[in-house]
Amino acid sequence: MAYHCFKVEINSYVAHVKFCRPDKRNSMTPEFWNELPRLIDKLDSSGDVRVIVLSSTGPHFTAGMDLSVFAGASEESVNASNLQVRAAKFYDTVKRLQNTFSCLAQARVPVLAAVQGGCIGAGVDLATACDMRYASKDAFFTIQETNIAMTADVGTFPRLGELIPDGIVRELAYTGRSMPAEEAHRWGLVNSVYDSHEDMLEGVMNIANAIAAKAPMTIFGCKKMIQYSQDHTVADTLDYVGIWNASFFNKAEIMESMKAKQEKREPNYNALPAKALAHEDTDLSQIE
Fold first, then answer.
1. Mean pLDDT throughout 17-41?
2. Which of 64, 169, 176, 231 is deepest in the core (most CB within 10 A)?
3. What is the DSSP string of 212-245?
4. Domain definitions of the chain by residue range
């Protein structure tokens, strides 16, 4: 399946998803919101991908949401009798947009974001839904919704507050100012800052390949436990990880890890089991 907003390359278990509309600053058109969850679902469900890297093309990672997404809502009548209808339709749209980025957090495999230039508006929502974020020196992050008289509603606040101090979240939200890459790194929003886009992609792909070399079920377990611990007590999380290992502990893979190290070779791990697609029934080989 060909995509309008993305190009995909899969190599050594790493899927590299690139936003491919640099002339439009990779703004998030209606096609973007339809394609991204289908694409991520397809990659995650196959069992053949162990890491997903999201990167972009052109001067900016993304200019954020294209206002055409809300074109239908703006055409609704503004008279009082239609206010509830308009509100319900707007709410449904927002929930669909939120689910688009939630697919990144819910994927079984880690998702890494490589950000260059502007990561604006909904771009922040997307980046915070990823497992890790990396930036080139020219990158910056802006909660743009504030600057156009909106409250960010696609994921910024519940996720950004888990990553950086509360006071910094409030400052960014209340002022709408841009946070440059070095400051984002200082507060922990990004893991590393690179001198150039090229250096960043090389570094991020090295990290992705290091993750892909580990046992897929182990990495899945790590992601599940980290996410679970964010919403539960230490006691609950300890219990959950105990149940998880009681269900998925694989002595054969531990032995394979040790044997591969002794024999100085790459270990041969089991793939994640394929699962049914949530969106459509097409196989991974059709991705172009």
1. 95
2. 64
3. HTS-HHHHHHHHHHHHHHHHS-HHHHHHHHHHHH
4. 6-212, 216-268
CA 260 to mean position of chain CA atoms: 32
Q: What is the mean pLDDT of residues 36-57?
A: 96
Residue bearing the bigger pLDDT, 94 or 123: 123
Instruction: Select from 158, 157, 164 the least CA-distant residue to 143.
Output: 157
**Strand, helix or coil for residue 277:** coil
**Which class in CATH covers the domain with range 216-268?**
mainly alpha
CATH number of the structural domain 6-212: 3.90.226.10
The angle formed by the CA atoms of residues 45, 47 and 48, to the nearest 5 degrees, is: 120
At 103 the three-state DSSP class reads helix
Task: Check if the beta carbon of residue 122 is closer than 8 Å to that of residue 62.
Answer: yes
Query: Measured between alpha carbons, how far is 126 from 54 in angstroms, rounded to an integer?
Result: 10
What confidence category does residue 2 fall into, taking pLDDT thresholds of 50, 70 and 90?
A: confident
Collapsing DSSP to helix, strand or coil, 134 comes out as strand
- The first and second tokens of residue 198, run together, are 């090229």
What's this model's pTM, rounded to 2 decimal places? 0.91
Each residue's pLDDT tens digit, 97-119 = 999 999 999 999 999 999 999 99
Spatial distance between the Cα atoms of 163 and 226, rounded to a whole number of angstroms: 13
Alpha-carbon distance 224 to 106, whole Å? 9
81 pLDDT band, cuts 50/70/90, is low
